[in-house]
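Quick one, tokens below. Sequence please?
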């Protein structure tokens, strides 16, 4: 367990089933075709899980080598790598959260904690948060806010702005997002943004569904 999902825990067979129920954006459609056939070919290359798959597709040379050995097109393998890599969501920078006071982000910066990945281990339990609060002078309320923003930032597609939107909408943990109804979440977020004008981008029902699907793959180990 940890900030990211353990890719060793997702076998190739399990990933087949995940792909069959995943909403794929247009540029990813190629991996939604012939799922069983293509991933069986991957398995036949002695790849047992997604962690081993990423290692096998580490760079362009490895992708070309894998393509020659397996017969799978290089462009298919490039897209597959990109999609699997998405499980490792890029952490959000603490300073980008406008709802976090500058004095707090500066204090974290002094400790070398500049993003949500670095902060994760400090906020896992009530005791850890209490100790961190005492050490830094960051209030308990700010610690909870940081904890929830960190938790939400683990979800694919969730940048610093959308993490704040989810927080303010009541979907303030990854587990709540995972258990949400995408249509209801869409309407709630839409209403909030209409009232407060937090972001300009269009976020539709399909986007909400993809966010929820991503959250469902995470472990929920943070103690609230």
């Amino acid at each position: 367990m940890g900030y990211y999902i353990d890719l060793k825990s997702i076998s190739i067979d399990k990933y087949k089933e995940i792909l069959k129920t995943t909403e794929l954006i247009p540029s990813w459609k190629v991996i939604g075709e012939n799922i069983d056939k293509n991933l069986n070919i991957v398995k036949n290359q002695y790849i047992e899980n997604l962690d081993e798959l990423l290692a096998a597709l580490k760079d362009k040379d490895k992708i070309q080598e894998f393509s020659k050995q397996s017969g799978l097109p290089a462009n298919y393998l490039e897209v597959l790598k990109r999609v699997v890599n998405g499980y490792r969501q890029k952490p959000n920078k603490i300073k980008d959260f406008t709802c976090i006071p500058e004095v707090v982000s500066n204090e974290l910066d002094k400790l070398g904690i500049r993003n949500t990945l670095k902060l994760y281990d400090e906020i896992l339990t009530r005791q850890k948060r209490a100790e961190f609060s005492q050490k830094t002078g960051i209030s308990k309320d700010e610690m909870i806010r940081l904890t929830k923003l960190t938790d939400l930032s683990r979800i694919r597609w969730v940048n610093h702005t959308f993490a704040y939107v989810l927080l303010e909408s009541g979907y303030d943990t990854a587990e709540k997002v995972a258990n949400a109804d995408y249509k209801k979440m869409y309407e709630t977020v839409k209403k909030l943004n209409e009232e407060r004008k937090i972001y300009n981008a269009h976020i539709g029902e399909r986007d909400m569904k993809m966010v929820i699907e991503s959250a469902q793959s995470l472990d929920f180990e943070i103690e609230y």
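The chain has two domains: 7-85, 94-215. The two ends are 17 Å apart (CA to CA).
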